[in-house]
Amino acid sequence: MLITQLLFMANSVIFLPLLGSSLIILLFVSGGILKPAMGASEQGTWCIPRPSTSEQTLVDNINFVCTVVDCSLIQEGGACFYPSNLLNHASVAMNLYYQKQGRHSWNCDFKKSGVIVVTDPSYGKCKFEFSY
User: Fold this and answer.
1) Which of 24, 42, 47, 75 has the most crowded CB, counting CB atoms within 10 A?
2) Which residue from 98, 93, 105 is spatially nearest to 67, judged by alpha carbons?
3) What domain range includes position 16?
4) Is residue 124 in some structural domain?
5) pLDDT digits over 21-38, tens only?
6) CA–CA separation, 68 vs 56, rounded Å?
């Protein structure tokens, strides 16, 4: 059987009958360009340390990041100071760097100690920045 495609630009809907089956996939088109309902570029992503990251690596990551971005959030009096521990401070710092550098996977590498997550790690008044 032939796979047929009919493109109706009038109402901006594409109908794709698959191999003669009654299954029809509808894709919405905006201005002639296919757009997913929610693509990877629109999904929130954050950078945090891997749970197995050593304390020294966490310190190194914080020190590196805080020479590049403003780390006042993790300083005493900052919204993300508490809980005052290396894992929390490194999470905030690494994410600040990742967000400010454009949310590219390589901006969360940190010598293989970073991991990108899709669940917002914000808590209380500590809001992990997200931009897209």
Assistant:
1) 47
2) 93
3) 1-35
4) no
5) 332 222 223 333 333 334
6) 19
Q: Comparing C-alpha atoms, which of 73, 94, 95 is closest to residue 84? A: 73
pLDDT tens per residue across span 93-130: 999 999 999 999 999 999 999 999 999 999 999 998 75
Do 106 and 54 share a domain, yes or no?
yes
- Give the list of residues 6+ apart from residue 3 with CB closer than 8 angstroms, or none: 16, 17, 18, 19
Exposed, middle or buried by CB within 10 Å (0-12, 13-18, 19+), for 108? buried
pTM: 0.67
- The secondary structure element, H or E, covering residue 111 is none
Structure tokens at 127: 């809001």
User: At 28, is the secondary structure helix, strand, or coil?
Assistant: strand
